[in-house]
Amino acid sequence: MTFTSYKEGNPDLWVLDLDRSENHKISSELGLNSAASWSPDGRQLALTLTKDGNAEIYLINQKGEIETRLTKNWSIDSSPCFSPNGKQIAFTSDRAGAPQIYVMDLDGSNVRKLTYETSYNDSPAWSPRGDKIAFVTRSPGGFDVCTIDITGENFMRLTSSGSNENPQWSPDGYHLVFSSNTTGKNEIYTMNWDGTNVKPITEGGENYNPCWSPSR
């Protein structure tokens, strides 16, 4: 897994080996190194860098070497997420004036806007089945979890109370895990892909940023 840390002063990107309980720095470009996503084959990472003054999305290899700059825009481009086949990347950009979800090919070409229904959308997560992208949309109470087909059709708002964030798919693509403060405290919940069968899986404290382990 990856994480961003300021422990050496700069917001560098680190990799944590859960089997060995070891971590090492993989990207330390000047400025922000964040929001990393592994490619399905584990050979590349898409991440946001601000080394040139603006938040852009890059591809790096396992050694942390930059392979490709994918976005070249005055806007903030962030939160990259690979498609299951590794051929496309979903990301957030405010190039249209407010954060929306976009999709591009692995080389940065064929950029298309995916979301139009609401004015603020972020945190894309591509379903392992390849058919949908989950994301959050800003609502009066905070954020709601939504999904949309990769064609841009069938927008669905799955939550309706509290603030709901950081949706992640189960390995089979039929469930989502997310954090919510609908009861007054931040807890982790699961639900079906269509928003039904919502269940809390934590109790007590403050709980954020869930991530489903891969199936083995």
What this model shows, in words?
There is one protein chain. Strands 4-5-6-7 form a 4-stranded antiparallel sheet, with no helix packed on it. The chain has a 4-stranded antiparallel sheet with strand order 8-9-10-11, with no helix packed on it. Strand 18 and strand 19 form a beta hairpin. The protein has 216 residues and is mainly beta. The chain has a domain at 114-216: Neuraminidase (6 Propeller). The chain contains no helices and 19 strands.
Topology (SSEs and partners):
Layout: E1 2-5, E2 12-17, E3 22-27, E4 33-38, E5 44-49, E6 56-61, E7 66-69, E8 77-82, E9 88-93, E10 100-105, E11 112-113, E12 121-126, E13 132-139, E14 142-149, E15 156-157, E16 164-169, E17 175-180, E18 187-192, E19 199-200
Antiparallel strand pairs: 1-2, 2-3, 4-5, 5-6, 6-7, 8-9, 9-10, 10-11, 12-13, 13-14, 14-15, 16-17, 17-18, 18-19
Number of helices: 0
Overall mean pLDDT score? 94
Overall structural class, as computed from helix and strand content, comes to mainly beta
What portion of the residues fall into strands of 2 or more residues? over 45%
**CATH superfamily grouping of the domain at 114-216:** TolB, C-terminal domain
Shape descriptor: globular
Main sheet? 4 strands, antiparallel
Q: What topology, given as strand order, has the largest sheet?
A: 4-5-6-7
Order of helices and strands: EEEEEEEEEEEEEEEEEEE
- State the CATH architecture of the domain at 114-216: 6 Propeller
**What's the CATH topology label of the domain at 114-216?**
Neuraminidase
The percentage helix is under 10%
Q: What quaternary form is this?
A: single chain
Question: What is the end-to-end distance?
Answer: 16 Å
Our Rg estimate from Cα atoms comes to 17 Å
Number of strands: 19
CATH C-level category of the domain at 114-216? Mainly Beta
* Unreliable stretches covering 5 or more consecutive residues: none
